[in-house]
Specification:
By secondary structure, the protein is an alpha/beta fold. The protein is built from ten helices and nine strands. Bound molecules: phosphoric acid mono(formamide)ester (CP). The site of phosphoric acid mono(formamide)ester has 9 residues, from helix 3.
Amino acid sequence: MFKQKHIVSMRDLTRDDVDFVLDYAEKMMPCAKAGVRLLQSRILALLFFEPSTRTQLSFDSAMKRLGGSTLSLTSEESSVLKGETLADTIKVVGEYADAIVLRHPREGAARMASEISSVPIINGGDGAGHHPTQTLLDLFTIKKESHLHDLDIALLGDLRYGRTAHSLVYALNMYDANITLVAPEGLQMPKHIVSTLDSVRLTEDIDEVIRDVDVLYVTRIQKERFPDPNEYLRVAKSYRITLPVLEGVRDNLIIMHPLPRVDEIAQEVDQTKYAKYFKQAFYGIPVRMALLAILLNGAT
Ligand code: CP
């Protein structure tokens, strides 16, 4: 399918590509704990120039479950501290590894890396830009725990800076989802993304929509991306999902969150049947195993 391709945004993938990854991830489910030797002697480099728990560790785990190995580098450990450019770093790491997962604070960094890299670049999050592999696992979660066909979904929170939301809505549009974007004033999704969506509604009020959706996708306010700390404080506590907020929701509602969460979902919600965010984090393993197997082996 797309062996040796760069995965920088969801626009790099067709609907057929996405369906193929999701089907392949289903095949990987039994191997997500037991392992399978598909990528022996292959090496994945993990370049994380911004903090990460899930993306870094699940790629690491996925590669090792496939029989491969990983190299890890953060900005604090690398020669970037001595002034080396990202471009030179990518060129060199491409000599040591078969693919590179890059997380970087600058929007567009992964695209730039893909233009000069000799090995596939997988965007693990570029500033407030994109996070396509999070979207693949989000879609897999929706497929497993709800349904992708005829989906009513609300995305809640920081849709301005939240890269997981940016990538997800592009993909949901491929599946003709009915999308509601719920954000406090100043944090609504950028117009250039909204304008690409076929069925979309914008509101500031979660109470208006929460009873009419199959999936509620909650996001954290991205404190680290606010140029003005006072602006962050203005919106910091503008929404919170609690048990009373969930009264009257659809019986089959699922609540997702890319994590980390701060306090936008109360811990009491974790015990409800709606909460799927920890399962969502687990699905990162089979999905990233599938993606790596396809990119590096051309799995068919
Ligand atoms: N969902 C996600 O990207 O989490 P991390 O920042 O922990 O990788």
